[in-house]
Amino acid sequence: MPSFLDLPVEIRRMIYPYCMDPNEYKKGYDIIKRSCNILAEERDGQSSASSPDCLQPRIYITRTTPTILLLNRQITAEALEILYKIPLELHGTPSTHFTMRQMDIAEFICEQLLQRIQYATLWLNQPHKNFVLILLDIWGADNRLKRLDVFFPKGVDRTARHWTISENRLRTFSLVAPVVFHEVNMP
Questions:
Q1: Are 99 and 4 contacting, i.e. CB atoms less than 8 angstroms apart?
Q2: What contacts 119, CB < 8 A, 6 or more positions away?
Q3: Cβ contacts of 1-10, under 8 Å, gap ≥ 24
Q4: Are 79 and 8 a contacting pair, CB within 8 Å?
Q5: What is the pLDDT of residues 137-173, one digit of tens each?
Q6: Domain coordinates in residue numbering, the chain
């Protein structure tokens, strides 16, 4: 019986992108939003003497490894080469409660993947200062970026403190990796 490794490497490389998606982390965003909505509904249904937000359970996301990366060393090496070339779309992480900080991107995507990805798009419909700073710290430790596209909303006053911090750090990071800024209409 023929195995996957009996296929020519060119065909295997065409299959790998269908077996893994670095942008799958966004499903975790949906889980967080649904969980927060459920907690908010429960809180609204209780009296004003209910427990404070800081006592609400912390929501955690389970990260998984694509199965194709677990088969053997040869397949893993070939697949990782392809995975790192798939463009990663980054959006600011959700907050879980009114009193909690914005979640860390490393709770959704492992730092190793972030550091080895070659093409990334950063969509900032808000300044997401903490998100940007954490992401740049991860990339500051090690990165293989060949291009980072940063999209800002058109017509928004970006002189506010959080916008200025995010934009300045991204401009400084452009000395390390190519960063291209875009101003676009966002939904």
A1: no
A2: 85, 86, 87, 88, 145, 146, 147, 148
A3: 4/71, 4/75, 5/74, 5/75, 9/78
A4: no
A5: 999 999 999 999 999 999 888 888 889 999 999 999 9
A6: 4-184
CB 131, CB 102: distance < 8 Å: yes
Rounded mean pLDDT, 9-38: 88
Are 32 and 38 contacting, i.e. CB atoms less than 8 angstroms apart? no
β-pair partners for 148: 120, 179
Q: How far apart are CA 16 and CA 4, in angstroms?
A: 11
126 and 154 Cβ atoms separated by less than 8 Å = no
pLDDT of 86 > 70? The answer is: yes
Least confidently predicted of 5-9, 17-21, 26-30 = 26-30
> What's the pLDDT tens digit per position in 63-75?
889 999 999 999 9
H or E segment and range at residue 134? helix 129-141
* Torsion of the alpha carbons at 26, 93, 110 and 53, rounded to the nearest 10: -110
- Is the CB of residue 114 less than 8 Å from the CB of residue 106? yes
- CA–CA gap between residue 22 and residue 91 (Å, rounded): 13
Residues 6+ apart with CB under 8 A from 152: 124, 158, 167, 181, 182, 183, 184
**What are the tokens at 158?**
């970006």
